[in-house]
Write a structure and sequence with these properties.
cytoplasm, kinase, nucleotide-binding, 17% helix, six-stranded antiparallel β-sheet, elongated, 253 residues, Rossmann fold, ATP binding, Tumour Suppressor Smad4
């Protein structure tokens, strides 16, 4: 059975060249009528495509025309129909972020990889951390902190020395960025259903910004983060190269 494919591409020249070649060879279907969306670009474009199409309930198959491409498959034009037919589907839930900025506005956003808080001035941030309404850390002095999903645990979380999480695990990673006090705090593993709240201490003196998959909110007073199981993102990977295999491979290289 031939799948109806909607091709989308980033603005990168290599992605646009691939888009032209693939649509000429396999045609182009409107997204709402497609069986699968093929995204051409890097991980950033893949995240953008997943967010943009989350209400369509259509799986997305990425082919790498960017740099890292952790969420992407290798690029090839010749065997695309066969690869799509044999692809393995992974379903992931995003994080929901809710934050209040100093002007009193409430901001909401979704993040497939992570929600991070980062200092926005010369001085270290001071954060108070509560889990499910219970205070767990009265003061974390740091450059920032983040909450990552298993799918996002190899990204910024891994760079900040956070753990890589198995894709099927019902846990989130809470990781500090350059923690100063407690100096050797190694972060925490939290149940997937946990509600994480960061309160910014001394926001006037030590401003903090929040980021949910590159959606920025400046001068936040507090941020709440929780997994949103009402939203499911469907990602296709070549057989034998799914997220579980990629996460394991990352830990042995």
């Amino acid at each position: 059975m031939t799948r109806k494919i909607a091709f989308v591409a980033s603005d990168a020249p290599t992605a646009q060249t691939a888009l032209a070649a693939l649509t000429q060879r396999f045609g182009q279907t409107p997204e709402a009528e497609a069986d699968v969306i093929v995204a051409l670009g890097g991980d950033g474009f893949m995240l953008h495509t997943l967010h943009r199409t989350q209400n369509l309930d259509i799986p997305v198959y990425g082919m790498n025309r960017g740099t890292v491409g952790f969420l992407m498959n290798e690029y090839s034009e010749d065997d695309l129909p066969e690869r799509l037919e044999a692809a393995v589907e992974e379903v992931i839930n995003p994080l929901s972020m809710r934050a209040e900025s100093r002007d009193g506005k409430i901001h909401t956003a979704l993040a497939i990889n992570e929600v991070s808080l980062l200092r926005a001035g010369p001085q270290a941030a001071k954060l108070r951390i509560s889990i499910d309404g219970r205070l767990r850390m009265p003061e974390l002095v740091c450059d920032g902190a983040l909450v990552a999903t298993p799918a996002g645990s190899t990204a910024y979380n891994n760079s900040a020395h956070g753990p890589i999480l198995p894709i099927g695990s019902d846990v989130l990673a809470l990781t500090a960025v350059a923690a100063f006090r407690p100096r050797r705090w190694r972060g925490a593993l939290l149940p997937k259903a946990a509600l994480v709240r960061f309160d910014v201490i001394e926001p006037d003196k030590r401003p903090v910004m929040a980021d949910a998959d590159s959606r920025w909110v400046e001068d936040v007073l507090w941020v709440e983060i929780q997994s949103d199981e009402s939203i499911s993102h469907r990602i296709l990977f070549d057989a034998g190269h799914g997220l579980e295999e990629r996460l394991l491979r990352e830990q042995f290289t």
